[in-house]
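lol ok so funny story. i was supposed to be doing the assay writeup but got distracted and ended up predicting the structure for this chain instead. priorities right. anyway since i did it might as well share w the group, maybe its usefull for someone
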Amino acid sequence: MRRESHVRFCEGPRVRFPRATRLVVGFEKQSDAEQFWRDIRERFRKFALELHPDKTRLLELGRFAAERRAKRGLGAPETFDFLGFTHLCGKAMSGNYLLVRHTMRVRMRARLSSVRAEIRRRRHLPIKAQGAWLGSVVRGYFAYHAVPTNIHAMQSFRREVVRHWHKALRRRSQRDRTNWRRMDILAKRWLPVARIQHPWPTERFDVRTQGRSRVR
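and the output, tada:
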């Protein structure tokens, strides 16, 4: 089981708290998830806090979620957004269950929109300056989003950056002859290739000390 809890903080005079925080908690049994939901709401009431009713959900995920929902006549398992990623039930190449993470479409569109505006502003700078800046943008984007199962979203981001860059260069002058062959050369020269940089969660949490003893 998975769920996303949005907590709304009450603000009193002269006191301001963060407007919201997010929490995802996993349970093996549905009864445990429902009990936690009841307990946390009761706990929050003691501190004049409450869960946002429209943004708190109980979601059924896991190896058997699709099969169980199909038996009940429901659709595919629900998805949820957390920390910039959309989480959904998927399958590995072996056919086993896999929790898939994709960059949120809204976040990607917003980032591409800001990059496109900045490319237009910088389009009359030397190619070297533009390439160095765009390379840092793409590397920074990949540094966060390069998680397993997200390679296609990363490739899409890089592809869109190249497209916006090409369009901006073409608009520098009516005599500009920057074609796609030229853009391929520029992209290979300045923009990093999409590749997974972060390990799987099972590998990340299986930490070893210098003495080779596992830390659990």
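Helices lie at 30-45, 65-71, 105-122, 127-145, 151-170, 180-190, 201-204. DSSP finds seven helices and nine strands in the chain.
back to the writeup now i swear
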